[in-house]
Amino acid sequence: MLMHRCRCGALIPISKARCDKCAEHKNESAKTYDTNIRDKRSTVFYHSKEWKRLRGLKMEAEHGLCEVCGEPATEVHHVVSIKDDWNQRLSYGNLKALCHSCHMKITKEQENERYQGRGDRKK
Length: 123
Fold this sequence. Notes:
Elements: E1 3-5, E2 11-13, H1 20-36, H2 40-46, H3 49-61, E3 75-78, E4 95-98, H4 100-115
Antiparallel strand pairs: 1-2, 3-4
């Protein structure tokens, strides 16, 4: 069986993105994010059958690998954020399969660009 390392260092099957402990933490973090940060419309979208299907197709097309660094992909990123253009939320060409690290870096860069010039740039 092919194995790789979870971000915590645990050795896990290649078919899994995270070990059970990290997966549980991720689920709790996602619930908190959905409840306290993400707007309701986006939360409903990210739990929809359409999104889950399209996300799965993208991950499959990229063989489960990050399009930036080649590590196992755990997330699918909207190149044009749904905050910026809701109409592109289900556009396959607007998606990238990414690992968590690359997704966080790209998202932070996008947020900095979005807030630049408004005087409330995030660090």
